[in-house]
Amino acid sequence: MTSVEDLSVARIVQARVDDDTDALIQELKLQTGWNESELVRNGIEALVQKLRPKKRRRISGLGAYDSGVTDLGSNKKHLEGFGR
Fold it and tell me: Which domain of life is it from (predicted)?
């Protein structure tokens, strides 16, 4: 968590909230010990993390080795003796 001393205030954001949202804010303040500014900053960061596209998982070593056989995956002769 970033402390107030570490922040350079670039912009002030104001928002109107209904009673239900205000109750949620008060509940979060009690649970976390954060002030409203910290709740907004951390909430935005959490939302960005949730919505940001995840990096695709890759197969380790995929394409890193060259067997020298150009049709290894498509020529059935290379697969004779494998499997059933």
Answer: Bacteria
Q: What is the DSSP string of 15-48?
A: ----HHHHHHHHHHHHHH---HHHHHHHHHHHHH
Which DSSP category does 53 fall into? P
Any idea where the domains of the chain sit in the sequence?
A: 1-53
Q: And the tokens for 43? A: 């909430």
Torsional sign, CA 30, 49, 9, 2? positive
Instruction: Give the angle subtended at the CA of 4 by the CAs of 17 and 47, to the nearest 5°.
Output: 45
Distance of alpha carbon 11 from alpha carbon 71, whole angstroms:
59
Residue 49's identity, in one-letter code, is Q
Please, are residues 4 and 41 in contact by the beta-carbon 8 Å criterion? no
Q: What is the largest CA-CA distance in the chain?
A: 71
Residue 71's pLDDT is 79
